[in-house]
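Holo model, nicotinamide-adenine-dinucleotide. Inputs:
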Amino acid sequence: MVARVSGVELVEVDEPELRPGEALVETTVVGVCGSDTHAAAGEHPFVPLPYRPGHEVVGAVRAVAADVTAVGVGDRVTVEPTLPCGNCKMCRTGRSNICENLRFFGCGYEQGGMAERFTVPAGRLHRLPDAMSDLQAALIEPLSTPVHAVRLAGGVRDKTVVVLGAGTIGLLVLRAAQHGGARRTVVTDPLPQKRERALAMGAGAVYDATRPDLVEAVRAELGESADVVFDCVSVQSTVDQAVRLASKGGIVMVVGVPVRPVSVALPELQDLQVRLQGSATYMPEDYDASIEMIMSGWVSPDDFVTGRFPLEEAAAAFAASVSGSHLKVTISPGLAR
Ligand SMILES: NC(=O)c1ccc[n+]([C@@H]2O[C@H](COP(=O)([O-])OP(=O)(O)OC[C@H]3O[C@@H](n4cnc5c(N)ncnc54)[C@H](O)[C@@H]3O)[C@@H](O)[C@H]2O)c1
Ligand SMILES: [Zn+2]
Ligand SMILES: [Zn+2]
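Output:
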């Protein structure tokens, strides 16, 4: 993997003013996400540069506006970074993750969680169980994306599942699919170290994504077509593989953020009755399910957090994140070096 992250810079800004409905949070841990590194490389379709990163945030509430009752000073919290309007059709029909007026804390929003302190609408904070560590809590946001994708796929109980891409999201999809009762799982990645991690996490089989006969090999491994393919990369080759793996009658979940246009084999999609489904972030219930999964030990920072950096070394954290040898890299303002 080529490290394509360029200008990551620490800048001093004024402490944000607490507005009605908001809480002031002091950051303890914040994850670096594939979306952050894409954005920093100028490749995120919806995040113009410069931007203030950090949406996988854990911290402690330091102040609340007078009208806030949902959280109080001292509460340990994580942010659900989607900022829906609450009024549009999507918000009114239980799909606030795709709100018509959606803003996203840490992704093109005026603030992000890679600051020492930030303000955010208090309604977007989830209180953490006392027994949950900050590092465990840093996995809630990333895990919620796979939990949502599995739910949108209609669940995976007794189904054959293929996960394309064994990065943080792909491996969390694997854990969520296992938790959801998948009958058989296969994971692909071009990097041997990622495939080894997938095997260590109990994948039924792993395959080099660059194999020219990948689709035939995985179908032979499964002994049939895939019921659900989670594309956690979303480039031309993975979308082509996904459709062919899901034929006939399967589901392709598009989880990876495509950084450039990708075409879909529409004749196959139609004739072989493949369902193509985008999956965008999560809903509060996905956060609740993630918290349970992490508390039960099903998803552990020991398996996922491979690098921890102090805030002063944010640029090194971004570089590590795209190096290919890490999974989840986190930044902690208070971390001693
Ligand atoms: N849908 C959502 O709401 C949502 C939320 C968070 C992240 N994402 C996206 O999910 C994707 C994965 O995120 P991540 O944090 O795991 O990134 P990551 O960089 O950690 O993982 C990507 C993995 O894909 C592998 N890969 C590259 N090319 C491949 C190919 N052709 N076939 C198979 N594997 C390949 C890489 O080796 C790497 O292991 C990103 O596009 C990210 O933006 C989507
Ligand atoms: Zn993220
Ligand atoms: Zn809305």
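The first strand starts at residue 22 and ends at 32. The first helix runs from residue 34 to 40.
Archived with the compound record.
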